[in-house]
Write a structure and sequence with these properties.
Layout lengths: L10 H14 L3 H19 L7 H15 L8
C-alpha cells in the first residue's frame, strides 16, 4: 500500500478528523481513509459525465454502501 504524507494541516481540520475518530471509535489512520474514500466518492459523483465510467462509479458506490454496514469499532 502507498504511504501519503500530508503537511501543514489546518489545526481546525485536524481537530475535526480527531472528533470523527473518537465518535466512530476508529484510529486516526482509519478515519482519514474513510473520509478520503467518502470525499472521493462525492467528487466522482460531480464528474460522473466526464470522469469515471458508470460501471466503475456503480462498483465503488456498492463497495462504499457495503462498508457502511460494517459496525464501527476495532477488530472488524
Amino acid at each position: 500500500m502507498t504511504d501519503l504524507v500530508l503537511r501543514d494541516i489546518d489545526p481546525i481540520l485536524a481537530d475535526r478528523i480527531r472528533r470523527v475518530s473518537v465518535a466512530r471509535g476508529w484510529s486516526e489512520h482509519e478515519t482519514i481513509l474513510h473520509l478520503l474514500e467518502q470525499g472521493l466518492f462525492a467528487s466522482e459523483e460531480e464528474v460522473r459525465g466526464g470522469g469515471f465510467e458508470d460501471l466503475e462509479v456503480d462498483a465503488l458506490a456498492d463497495a462504499i454502501a457495503a462498508l457502511k454496514d460494517v459496525p464501527a469499532g476495532k477488530g472488524f
